[in-house]
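Could you please review the protein record set out just below?
***
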Amino acid sequence: MDGLVAHHHRMLAWDDWANREALASLRACGKGGERAPAKSVRWLAHIAGAERLWWARVARDKEPVPVWPEWDLDECAERIEDVARRWAARLASLSPDGLLAPIAYVNSKGESFANSLGDVLTHVVAHSAYHRGQIAADVRAAGFEPAYTDFIHCVRQGIVR
């Protein structure tokens, strides 16, 4: 596998792991009769929805995907698993030149753009990391322990090699 394709594989593997860790931390908030912070659940649903939306743009899938879906933690778990499988399958057949291929799409405001697949993948991972940071701050503010989702922690744990 080409180095750049392998890099994106690693980033998406980290993203999947980190999303699952964030989900687990929100589920842990619910133990003892309390509830996960509503904003955090909304952000996690947004992560899953946005990742699926970007996959749909790349795959030219016309299935409507809400940017801010109203999903509970079980629905988030299903969507996180589904989109991780979709991205892994997409990357499995990708050539290095495929990362440079422009992806034409229309954003949620109706504006047309074209970006390389590599740039889209970088955006997907960075966008999700941003919102996982919001989740971590919100979970901590609510008195719970947030997930430790740093990339380097994932590598140290042997999750991503």
Observations:
- The mean pLDDT is 94.
- The chain is about 65% helix and 5% strand.
- The chain has one domain: 3-156.
